[in-house]
Write a structure and sequence with these properties.
With 427 residues, the chain is mainly beta. Helices cover 5% and strands 45% of the residues. The protein contains five helices and 33 strands. The radius of gyration is 28 Å and the shape is elongated.
């Protein structure tokens, strides 16, 4: 293979400093336009210092000298090897990114999927753009064909092309949490000879995994960011650990592949419980498809009411589970509590149900039927949970003969109003 066209010609300089060889490419390092405008005085420029004193091992991904000895590598590579290297740009090296395995410039799909993994030294924000090489699909058309999953030390990009053919994948990295700019770090060509399940797409979200806000609020979620839901396991557990008190909320959305949209699920499909240093969630997915479970948080004293997203996980349910019972629905007011019974959100009318709830600092807990009958539970014992003493309230309650909402409410201060904790549906 030869490159005879003058289009790709460039020049650079080698420098020997402190016992090591480096490269200097003044043309690529010099300032370039980052924001274009008709007024040259308002255009934005920046230089790229990566191309001053570049290591030969990084330099070879974009520069191939005519003479092999000027690669300055212990084992020079051939032109064929150079052409098969993935295209890595300066942001890849400046953000200290590493491939955990060797990738070629062209990726082949297997069972209709292609994957790229990148290791990071800290939580790094990525994005990806997929394009059809013949222009048949725009990047906007293919948003739901790339899934970006980010973890503290790794990012995974999963690509599911809608039709066979050739594609270009561009991976972008964010400079820092507060930057609005994404820099292209790497590019690949993807060859997709066969498509499996062409109608199956991914939820369109910025990415799956923790966000920088999670660390800012002193939060942590352990475990994978992608789950497969199996009813034999009853639910998907998610545990949020807290270093200090914050206020937070949660949502569950189902991906509607036909409408290319996320649809909010009723809160009966996840159960939330909280103590001083952790919040636990049990998530159920009743229908086939992808679900996105998201957590939002803010400082406890923040008056703005704005809760940024701190975490997203992806759940795939591979079939419909028609007999799966929903959970009771918790209110937005989250005291420290634990519900023991009942754990089913839909109850029958004209029967008796045992209610048992552990709750901090309540002076009374009552169950309110659709007929506005108040049944007060009795405080039976105290339980210790993570160095927190919770009073346990218990009682057997008649559900009444009327369908509708049944509420569990608590009072914390004498003379104050009762606050709702949980909602059940009577049928």
């Amino acid at each position: 293979m030869t490159l005879d066209s003058p289009t790709f010609r460039n020049t650079w300089t080698g420098a020997y400093l402190d016992g090591h060889w480096y490269f200097i490419n003044c043309l690529w390092a010099s300032r370039h336009v980052t924001y274009r405008t008709n007024d040259p005085l308002k255009a934005m420029y920046e230089s790229d210092d990566f191309y001053f004193l570049t290591n030969p091992e990084d330099h070879i991904y974009q520069h191939f000298p005519i003479e092999a000895r000027f690669q300055l590598l212990r084992r020079p590579i051939s032109l064929d090897e150079f052409v098969n290297l993935p295209l890595l740009r300066s942001p890849f090296f400046k953000n200290r990114l590493v491939f955990p395995q060797k990738f070629k410039a062209v990726l082949e799909t297997h069972n209709g999927l292609a994957k790229v993994k990148i290791r990071t030294t800290s939580l790094t924000i990525f994005d990806a753009i997929l394009e059809k090489s013949d222009g048949g699909y725009s990047a906007a058309d293919l948003q739901d064909r790339v899934l970006v999953c980010i973890e503290p030390d790794e990012a995974t990009f999963t690509i599911r092309p809608p039709v066979h053919g050739e594609y270009f994948l561009h991976l972008y990295v964010k400079r820092d949490e507060h930057s609005h700019k994404l820099d292209c770090a790497s590019s690949f060509k993807i060859n997709c000879p066969v498509v499996n399940n062409p109608g199956k797409s991914f939820p369109v979200v910025p990415y799956i995994g923790p966000t920088p806000a999670m660390h800012r609020f002193g939060l942590m979620v352990e475990g994978p960011v992608v789950h497969a839901f199996d009813p034999d396991d009853n639910f998907i557990p998610v545990t949020l650990q807290m270093q200090r008190q914050v206020k937070f909320a949660a949502s569950l959305q189902r991906h509607d592949g036909e409408k290319h949209a996320l649809v909010d699920m009723n809160k009966h499909w996840f159960l939330q419980q909280k103590t001083d240093n952790e919040a636990t969630f049990a998530v159920r997915c009743p229908k086939i498809g992808y679900y996105v479970f998201s957590l939002f948080a803010a400082e406890a004293e923040d008056p703005s009411g704005y809760l940024p997203c701190v975490y997203r996980c992806l759940i795939e349910s591979k079939r419909d589970w028609h007999k799966m019972p929903p959970f009771p629905m918790a209110s937005q007011h989250w005291p420290n509590y634990k519900i023991h019974q009942p754990l089913v959100g839909h109850l029958k009318v004209d029967t008796w149900e045992l209610f048992k709830i552990s709750l901090q600092a309540a002076i009374d807990v009552a169950v309110v039927t659709p007929e506005d009958t108040w049944c007060h539970l009795e405080e039976t014992e105290n339980m210790s949970l993570h160095a927190l003493t919770l009073g346990t309230w218990e009682g057997v309650v008649p559900t009444g003969k009327t369908s509708g909402r049944m509420l569990v409410c608590a009072k914390y201060v004498a003379g104050s109003n009762y606050e709702p904790l949980f909602e059940f549906k009577l049928k």
